[in-house]
Specification:
six-stranded antiparallel sheet, 2 domains, mainly beta, Elongation Factor Tu (Ef-tu), domain 3, single chain, 5% helix, 164 residues, SH3 type barrels, 40% strand
């Protein structure tokens, strides 16, 4: 997040800002005025797209100096203000805690988090036998995601299941 002319410029994790432009409020955590771990909530007075980013005008943040104090904050949008995910899209929060199984149904572990990468995301999996491993979120390895059933079917690369 960057402070620009009294507004804040936000680069969404998804790479597409269109979903967050409808937000009526945002919560900022971190940064000089981001409210720490609890976060500080701001009402959005205007929002527009700027390339791959969203620029928000926030009530109470009128000057560039005030916006600069928010640089480095993490930006959170309420789920009910987001459009539903499209086909083969998921909210990160929905993946965390999902059971991960191999194609044959044998347990691999549980999703502990999602790591965002430049080419694709990675599932951080707490393995059933102990330890953690990263699995690329690409169709070759992640074959099925059932958010409602809290289950992901994976075909990890050769040797991945043996690494440890």
């Amino acid at each position: 997040m960057h402070g620009v002319a009294g507004g804040i410029k936000v680069k969404p994790v998804s790479g597409d800002p269109s979903g967050i432009l409808a937000a009526r409020s945002i919560v900022l955590r971190g940064g000089a005025r981001g409210g720490g771990a609890e976060g500080a909530e701001f009402e959005v007075s205007a929002a527009q797209r700027s390339g791959g980013c969203a620029v928000f005008a926030l009530k109470g943040i009128e000057a560039a100096e005030s916006a600069r104090e928010l640089v480095g904050s993490l930006v959170f949008v309420r789920r009910d203000e987001l459009p539903p995910p499209g086909e083969n899209e998921y909210f990160v929060a929905d993946l965390v805690g999902c059971e991960v199984v191999a194609l044959d149904g044998n347990p691999i572990g549980r999703v502990a988090g999602v790591v965002h990468g430049p080419a694709h995301d990675w599932l951080e999996i707490r393995r059933a036998g102990g330890g953690e491993a990263l699995l690329p979120v690409v169709s070759e390895f992640v074959r099925e995601v059932d958010v409602a059933g809290r289950r992901i079917v994976a075909a990890p690369p050769k040797g991945w299941l043996d690494a440890g």
